[in-house]
Amino acid sequence: MYKDKLLFSQEFQAYIMQEAEKRKKAEELFPSFKNLSSEKVLNLAVDKFRGKLAFASSLGLEDQVITDIIAKNKLDIPIFTLDTGRFFNETYELIEKTEKHYALKISVYFPEPSDIENMVRNFGVNLFYESAEKRKYCCAQRKVKPLRRALSGLSAWICGLRREQSITRSGLEVIEWDEGNNLVKINPLTDWTEEKVKDYITENKVPYNPLHDRGFISIGCACCTRAVKPGEHPRSGRWWWEAPEQKECGLHIVNGRLERIIKS
Ligand code: SF4
After folding, report:
1. Residue 142 near ligand 1, beta carbon < 6 Å
2. By the number of CB atoms within 10 A of the CB, which of 28, 187, 188, 238 ranks highest?
3. Is residue 230's pLDDT more than 90?
4. Domains in the chain: boundaries
């Protein structure tokens, strides 16, 4: 018994050391990603993480820009998306349109059916309106768990996050260690403004979700997204019944510490 515990402890220690080494090696690359254009960031990402890299697209405007850059530069970066099962029909149409437009494939990951069945049986179909905890639980089942599956075996993933998108993203770096998922996260559009994103979409005729033309800015699940009035914060259409500092789904908490980002 004691021997088993000792072995387990040694294995655990070895695992911790291995992970620390992995992180240290990754962080040594970070300076080379500074002050580069988005295109160069993506090229460098392929160079450094070839075969162990993927782009997580939520089909938003920023993600469509990244898809455009990947397709035009023929970058070896697989694209995946997480289908929560509660999307707008326009989002499904956009998946199809994007695949046809660029002649590429977007891998779709779904939640585990048993996770959703258990959640709905216990808390109902619209549990997310009842409390922040239940909303985060739903996001965990429908997004975070499938994301873990999509990221398994990778060394780095790419996201379309921008600093000005929300209070929780103000400390965002172009490349950072994603402690929650234990790999590198690359954000090639960190410094882009909303205007720059829209201009790129128009100038390059990038396919996008028509809901954006009807006041929807950040588009997620249909039940948790609403149109935003002029002058309202872009993220105010997501989980509008919650306080701003609660508005993350567990996919993008930098260094696992939401509090630190809010204060910065
Ligand atoms: S956005 Fe809403 S429906 Fe979608 S996973 Fe999160 S809580 Fe569930």
Report:
1. yes
2. 188
3. no
4. 36-263
